[in-house]
Every structure is written in C-alpha cells, then in structure tokens.
Design goal:
Elements: H1 29-40, H2 63-72, E1 76-79, E2 82-85, H3 100-111, E3 121-125, H4 127-132, H5 147-167, E4 171-175, H6 179-182, H7 195-206, E5 212-216, H8 223-231, E6 236-240, H9 253-259, E7 262-266, H10 278-292, E8 296-299, H11 313-336
Parallel strand pairs: 3-4, 4-5, 5-6, 6-7, 7-8
Antiparallel strand pairs: 1-2
Helix pairs in contact: 5-7, 7-8, 10-11
Length: about 325
C-alpha cells in the first residue's frame, strides 16, 4: 500500500549514483561500501547505488538495461560504451530487466543491520532517455526519435517497475533527463511528439507501481516538462534547484496542490565538489518551504557519479549528504513541529 505523501514532508533521499567504479559483477566491494555509507549518512530513503563504469568496463543508467536486452534482442547491439539499434522491432524479454542491483541492495540491508531507514528508493531509466542512448551520436535519428522503440521500451520497463514495487521499495523514480532536451523551451517537442504521447509512455511505467512514484528531470523545467509531469500519474516531480535556480519559478504551490503532487527539491550540487554548509542548505530548503509549503522532499540535484575522478570526491559526497540530512532535520523541527 502506498505510504501517505503527507507523512514524508522534508524526508531525505539520494538520486542513486556515487563516485565509485562499478564492481557489481566482481567482488562488490564498492557496491557494498556505497550502500553502507549511504545508510550511515542518515538518509530516510536511500537509493540503491548506480556506480559508473570505466572505459574498459562501461556501465551507466542506460547500459544497465540495454546490456541484458541485447542478449535477448538481435535488434540491439552493445559495443563498449555505445549501443546501436539494428531494427525497430524490439522484442519483449518476458521478464524484468535491470533490477539485479536493486534486489542486491535489499538483500544487503536485510543481512547487514547497519542502521535504521524509513524506507527504500529505487530508480528506473525512463523510456525516452533509454531510447536516446540507442545511436546516441545523432540526436535527430537516435532511438528516441522512433515512437515504436519508445513504446516497446516503455512496456519492458513497466515490468521492471512492477518487480521493484513487488520487492517492497517504498518509492520508485523514473529517471528522464532527456525530457529537458526533448520538450523544448518554445513549446515544441523534438520528433513532433505531443504531450499526450509522452504522458502515455511515462504512465505505462507508473501504473505498474503500488508504491509511491516520481519522475526525475534535471536541467531546466520547460513549460512542456511541467505540463507533462503534472498530467502524469507520478506522485512526485523531481528536479534540480541548486545548479538551475530559475527552476524555482516553474511551479507554484497551487500547481502542486491541484495536481496532488509533492516536489523533490535538489538542494546540493551534484557537479560542484565544494561541500555546502548546513546553513547554506537550510536557507535553500527554507525558501522551498516558503514557495511550496509542506510538499517538499529533500535530495541532491542529481546523481554524484559524474564526480568520479575528482580529488576526494567520495568523501566530499558523504559530507554533502550528511549536511543535507542535518539541514532537513533542522527545517523540519523549525517549520513543522
């Protein structure tokens, strides 16, 4: 049964990726470290770790799904970091794909009582973003430009969402960063997609969830992005507000109340290694509460995987998350008690 949104005001979670190299298919030392350290930061709803790969062992939010799909689909070919679409006819693999890391996360939490969490979060790469990785080098002819490909992937990813919901995750987020590119600033969508088609494809995933649902779109919130997300079945709209402060003007409290949604508020940078102070984060969250009332959840702008290679990146990210959790607790006590 869905947890009531009104119980989650200023609850904290992370987006997923961390600046450690993926070793899920090896000894899992980095995976285990990331899980344990997320719990230790005090996050309310930690997400299973999505760790970036290396040039010799690539992994990312798309390959997590496209690699297993390529094993059952001759229409998809993965070569190193690139994925190619050989045919628009993508076959349903008759089961969920890309959920192995999430399953391992729950097993680890069960077997290693490190600390208490309020719940767990999972992320699924959305159909438009996943399709965009197919023949990525040409924006206008990549997989996202082909409605049959998007439709097939939406059906496949819907099964992954259902599996995550059945496993007991409290919140599943559909990651769709490509929407900020596809749904333009001037009211025009790439590939001549209309808003109804975009909503329909997103809802194919969201209708499979019995837990809370979110859609994450980083970058600028264009009017079309706002319209699509408010019309979708998502319980939570998830955006970055540290790097893209103009997003503060995208939604009003009335917009969220009318649509029955909460907003996941990115309040620490996922690209700048500078650690924000508790006071700095508290000021941002105070502004969010002023704008949106109690309909605020707390998170970083995006995943931290892009910081891999920066000096001391992992330790800096831990400090960012600890400060974020502390700030959220402070605002929660001051505003809602």
């Amino acid at each position: 049964m869905k947890r009531q949104l009104n119980e989650m005001s200023l609850a904290t979670f992370d987006v997923g990726s961390m600046p450690l190299e993926d070793d899920f298919d090896e000894d899992k030392r980095n995976v285990d470290r990331a899980i344990a350290d997320k719990i230790k930061t005090g996050l309310d709803y930690p997400c299973y770790p999505q760790l970036p790969g290396t040039p010799t062992k690539p992994m990312n939010m798309a390959l997590q799904y496209l690699k297993p799909l390529s094993k059952t689909n001759s229409s998809i070919q993965v070569s190193g970091q690139e994925a190619h679409l050989l045919s628009d006819d993508i076959k349903d693999p008759n089961g969920p794909v890309g959920v192995e890391r999430a399953k391992y996360f729950l097993t680890f939490l069960r077997d290693h009582p490190i600390g208490r969490v309020r719940g767990t979060r999972a992320c699924v790469t959305g159909p438009f973003t996943l399709a965009s990785y197919l023949d990525l080098k040409n924006l206008m002819t990549c997989g996202a430009s082909k409605p049959n490909v998007v439709r097939a992937l939406a059906g496949i990813l819907g099964k992954s969402c259902k599996r995550l919901s059945d496993l007991g995750f409290d919140l599943v987020c559909v990651d769709e960063p490509f929407l900020s590119v596809m749904l333009g600033r001037k009211g025009h969508a790439l590939y001549k997609y209309d808003e109804h088609f975009v909503v329909e494809m997103l809802d194919r995933l969201l209708t499979q969830l019995s837990c809370l649902s979110a859609i994450h779109v980083c970058g600028r919130i264009t009017p079309m992005v706002k319209t699509v997300l408010l019309q979708s079945r998502a319980d939570i709209v998830d955006h970055e507000f540290t790097l893209t402060q103009e997003n503060l003007n995208a939604y009003s409290r009335e917009d969220l109340e009318r649509a029955g949604k909460y907003i996941a508020f990115g309040c620490v940078s996922s690209t700048n290694p500078t650690v924000e102070s508790v006071d700095e984060i508290s000021a941002r969250l105070g502004k969010a509460v002023t704008l949106y009332g109690e309909r605020v959840l707390v998170k970083p702008d995006c995943g931290f995987g892009g910081l891999l290679g920066s000096p001391d990146a992992y330790e800096l990210v831990q400090r960012k998350l600890i400060n974020m959790v502390t700030a959220a607790k402070t605002i929660r006590q001051n505003e809602f008690t």
